[in-house]
Amino acid sequence: MPNSFLNFIKRQIENRIKMAAAEESIMIISVLKWTVLATVTGAIVGLSSGGFLKLLQWSTGYSSKYNYYFLLLPAGFFISSALVKYLAPEAKGHGTEKVIEAVHKRSGKIALPVVPVKLAATIVTLVVGGSVGKEGPSAQIGAGLASAFADLFRFGNADRKKLVICGISAGFASVFGTPIAGSIFGIEVLFIGGMMYEVLLPSFIAGIISFEVSSHLGVSYFYHSIKFVPTFSSSFFSMVVLAGIFFGIVSVIMIEGLNAGERLAHKLHFWAPLKGLAGGVALIVLTFAFSKQFLGLGLNSIEGTLTGLQIVWYAFLIKIIFTSITLAMEGSGGIITPIFFVGATAGSAFGRLMGLDPASFAAIGIVALVAGAANAPIAASILTVELFGPAIAPYAAIAAVISFLISGHRSVYPSQVLAMSKSPSLEVEQGCEIIDARPTFAPREKSLIAFFYYKVWLFLCHIGGRKSEEKR
User: Fold this and answer.
1) What tens digit of pLDDT does each residue of 271-301 get?
2) CATH number of 22-216
């Protein structure tokens, strides 16, 4: 009996060891597999993004030598629209949105022609002064190449999806020189309130490799350390909280401004390239009315606000209009760089209004707008350290999270999937795309606070001109 019992214990221990060894062996193989795949993906995206950025820098530098280069806006939008319409319809819009849609609906399947068409359409748009960014094309180019790589080696849907997400991370990292924030952005931007942790390792590897490859190609990156940060006090902390609320409202204005542009464009029932002509003419008129600083990437204005340069207080509103027209009227490009512009100018205006350092709040504004408009508060908080240094990071993180909450269930990326409600008093269908989200008032507890929320909800629904929905 004792020998039988000892043999039983021995067999159990041996089985446990074998199971543990098998599990660890599988995990080691998985780590090695995704290290190799993510490295290859990061290198491919780094090379393509680096080439795209160098070409973009040369072409925009050449066109900006001429004072009235923006008079070519109608022709540029016409060409951009025709390229997309007839060669790769998937390349329409601001890039990252289409990649998010592909991940959720087609397991990351992206047609290869999207890569050269997106590159050409974006360069044409920016050369003539279209108000767009450069990260969306890099993300779409990177994701498209990752998808083609997966198809070449006949990977399954799950592996293709992971590689495409790595492409998003690598594209963002190589454009802004922020490998950690870029890696997190690629997995955070897919869901609101959820992250795909199984893609965390390959996203980090792809982002870091892509950044290193682009750097070795000679791509230079912006970094501006914010060293003037006031000593912590209750009054300054209150200003940061107030700034977070303000940036959340600005995020809403930007999102709704972009949506308004799309709705207006849909009402124009004529040939898409002609819409491009009309949009180009509209931007020419606006440029003469305001200035050229709202055209293109607007990097000089962004950097100026971070050094304390004063800019008109309504600059962020004008930039939203320029960007909305560009994207709605057949221009091609990203949305994050315009978000940087809007955040920086809004932050500068807020700082001056409150008697605070405008440069510090311009930096906070950039981060908070990324969090509020793109629903990426974690990536935005890390972005603070990589772009502006650690001194301002705690305050920027607070403002970013508040902005993320204030912006509600909306986004510049309509294909983001809801994985949470931003308030216990609002009920949304989890698992649906944000474009289909219909928040309803449904407090979990009956209290005076809930009653107050309910009255506010009814009032805002009333002034917004729509019938309220509530569950009492």
Assistant:
1) 889 999 999 999 999 999 999 999 999 999 9
2) 1.10.3080.10
